[in-house]
Structures are given as C-alpha cells and as structure tokens.
Amino acid sequence: MSLDELVDVYWQDIAPKRYRDGFDEDRDVPTYDWLTEHGYSGIAYALREHHDLTPKQFFVDVVGLENEESVGWEWNVEHEATVNALELYLNSIQTRGGRAESTVETHRTRLAKWVRTYRELHGTDALLEPLSELDQQPREIERCLAVLDVFDEELSTDRSKLEYLHVARAWYAFVKRRKYAKYNPLAEASEEFGWEASEPDPQALSASQVRRIYSEVDSPESGLLVVALAGWGLRPSEVAALHVGQVVLDAEDPHLSFSDGERKNGPGEVTLLYGVDVVADRIDALSDRETWNGYLFPSRSSSTGHISVSTIRRRFKQLADTAGVVVDGETPTPKMGRRFWYSAYQEAVGEVLEGLEGVAEDQGSSSTEVVLRNYLSRAQERKARRRRMYEKLETAFS
What we know:
It contains 17 helices and 3 strands. It is an all-alpha fold. The protein folds into 3 domains: about 5-65, no CATH class; about 80-190, DNA polymerase, domain 1 (Orthogonal Bundle); about 205-398, hpI Integrase, Chain A (Orthogonal Bundle). A 3-stranded antiparallel beta sheet has the order 1-2-3, with no helix packed on it. Strand 1 (about 245-250) and strand 2 form a beta hairpin.
C-alpha cells in the first residue's frame, strides 16, 4: 500500500472512528494499542516494512496530525497582512471568545488547509487583497467556492466539510467586522452544497452490490469506469483524467503511474490486481480512432480533453440505479465504490495476519506481526496479501 493510499485509509476509515471515540481526528495521534484494538495493526506493519516509518512519524509528518512535542507554528504564507489577520482571529477567539486551546489549534489547522488549498488553486495566498473592493466580490465568491469544491472531493463526510466551511466563514466574518474586508465571500456558501451535519459516515458498497452494478455495464468504457473506482480504488477525478501514458501493462507488475500533480498526495503507483483485460480492451477500442488524444475517457467538447468528474458520478449512479442498488435509501455514489476497495484491502491484510496466528502460538511469538516480519520475506508477504485481495475483487467482479 502506498503512502497515498494509507493517508486515504486514515481520513476515510480511521478518522470517523476516532471522532466517535471522542478524539480530535485532525490533531490526536492514534496509539498503537488503539490501532490494534480497532483492527488496524496491519498499518503499523506496512509503514515499518514498506516505508521505514513508525506510526507516529506517519500520522505527524505525512497525514499532518498535531505533534504534541512540536513548538511554534509556521503558516508558510507569504502575504504578511493575511498572516496577521489569521493570528489576530485565533487570539480573539481564545482571549475574548474563551475557546479552549485545543479548539484554537483545530481552527488553526483548518485555516491553514484553507489557505494552502486557495493558493494551490489560484496562485496566491493574499486572501485579504480581493476583499477590499466590492467589484471583486463575484469573482472572489467563485474562487472560494472552488476551494470548497476541492474539500467536497477530498473530505469523506459532510460533517468534516461543514466544519472546514464554518471555520473559514468565521474568519472571513471576523476580518469583515474588523474592517479589513468589505464583504464575506462565504456568507451564503452553505446554500451551494447539500451538506448535512447529521450525515452518517460514508458507506462502502458490498461485493454483491459491486457485482450487480458491474453486471449492468454495456461497453468497455462503462466497464472501465466501475473497475477503476471499485477495483483500483481511484478517486473520480483520477478516473476522469486517466491517460494511456499512465498505464503500464507489464506482465509481472501491471500498474498505473501517477506523476507529481496527478494525485492529491503526490506521485506514486497503483497496482492493477484486477481488470488488466478491461483497460487493455478500452485502449484497443480507442486506438482505432484517428483523433484519439490518449485519455481513456476522452471528450471533444471539454477543454481538458477528457470528461468531467460530474460525468463520472452521473454515469456511475446511472449504472447503480439500473442495477437497483440502494444504500441507506439513496443511489450509491462513486465514493462508495472506492470505499469498497479500501474495505476489501483492510480485510485482506487482516486475513493474512490471522492466518499466521497458529505459527505465532507455536513459535511463542508475541504477535502475528512478529511472525510476518521474521518468517516471511517481503515478496512472500506481498504475494499473500495480493492473493487475498485478488480473491475479494474476483468475487465482486465475477
């Protein structure tokens, strides 16, 4: 499992459980005992053996949770006036608002993510500048909504999305009250999204539900769409932008290659344990087109050259609707297909460890992870894990 995928496991699976257990999922680092108790001991092994990281190093340095031993804070924001306004807001909610220090730090973390995402989208972190002119208001509202579009894609629950919106909106309201701004670009932003605070944690499709949806595919294109989401665990945005140049159909190690900027958490590879024939058929079909641009989901009407994320969502929901698949009374979304992959992977890792319990007992080892580390090579462990995962995918797509 790549670091990118492990980060997704944290935010999509572990973070909601941490919240229910009373922890701050944006700050508190899970202990090894907590991970083991909740069925995530395999993550510690994967980090140690494949990435040379301890769980704490991963959660602090990669995921970005709070390190209680760290001192100071760097916003990494060049615009001094924006930094001053951020610090002024945090000081105000602590001294005048009486907020607990942990709450203040949560606001700091979420504001930092807001500024970072804004800068990545718009090339500047001078958030105050466009707020001084009312004629900038329509364009700035659109820029802020674009940030929320990213959060809508990246964050796993409506509750998380709303919490980020509430913090950012509170900061904009603060700078408006203090006359650093003439308007709040997020004042009515909640009307743009159907986010609900009471939304439960997102569900994963079951293997039988994936199978029913896959049974409705009627073309190499729709088949690839379902396999890419539920069989490879890709984000809808990654599916929409898939390019033939990313596909490596090596007989020993077929995979997708993502360069820097193509995935949320940086470059990496996604192993194709299942569906090699599906992507090969799609490439063969597209290769016959004289004007093919290389995208696996091309679009002549789009400026990007490929279909949009909304089209991916619409087509997936159409397949699910035709199959009669319903989750909590609603037609499932692509995110539920993607979560099937992560749920299946966690089960596969757990089953490999469970299979070593007898060996651990016979050898007097303290845990199955010790056996896995000392008695199986990395190649053997990877082969066992992939075999289990392949069986789960085959069950879903057969």
